[in-house]
Amino acid sequence: MNICRYCALPVANPVKTLAYWNQTPDVCHPECKVAGEKQESVDCQVIDADCNDCRHFLRGELVKRWLSDIKDGMKTKTLTNMGIVKGRCAKLRTETEAYPHMSTGRPCFEHRRELSP
Predict the structure, then answer these.
(1) Which of 32, 51, 94, 115 is most deeply buried (CB count within 10 A of its CB)?
(2) 37 touches 17 (CB < 8 A)
(3) Residue 21, Cβ neighbours under 10 Å: how many?
(4) How many of the other CB atoms lie within 10 Å of CB of 61?
(5) Nearest Cα to 50, choosing from 105, 91, 88, 87?
(6) Please, are residues 93 and 82 in contact by the beta-carbon 8 Å criterion?
(7) Contact (CB, 8 A) for 26 and 40
(8) pLDDT for res 17
(9) Do β-strands 10-11 and 2-3 pair in parallel, antiparallel, or remain unpaired?
(10) Mean pLDDT by 10 residues, the chain (117 residues)
(11) How many CA atoms lie within 13 A of 102 on its CB side?
């Protein structure tokens, strides 16, 4: 018997869902999917405590880095978006960087969305 990822009750007609961090497949009730995925993402972002999801982060420049890419024996450069955002913490009034899907555990973190009770 399948167990719903979000409510932990048996589910007869499951739908597929993916875990937030590593995208591991799982199952849930159709009526649990949307709310469950949203709540799981917020819960995981709170655990990560990274500037990317903090209410005090003022976004700035998206950091990109040149990487080497070898094609047909020739070395070419490819611009790759590394997903790091430089910015400013309005709470601490300091320069900082945000790393999406990474845990930095900053003690000043406050989630940018309203949290469930």
Answers:
(1) 51
(2) yes
(3) 13
(4) 10
(5) 105
(6) no
(7) no
(8) 97
(9) antiparallel
(10) 96 95 94 96 94 95 72 65 87 94 92 72
(11) 11
SS3 of residue 99 by DSSP: coil
Specify the residue for token string 């048996």.
10
Q: The tokens of 52 are what? A: 């990317």
3-state secondary structure the chain: CEECCCCCCEECCCEEEECCCCCCEEEECHHHHHHHHHHHHHHHHHHHCCHHHECCEEEEEEEEEEEEEEECCEEEEEEEEEEEEEEEECCCCEEEEECCCCCCCCCCCCECCCCCC
Determine how β-strand 57-71 pairs with β-strand 25-28: unpaired
Half-sphere exposure of 21 (CA within 13 A, CB side): 8
pLDDT recorded at residue 100: 81
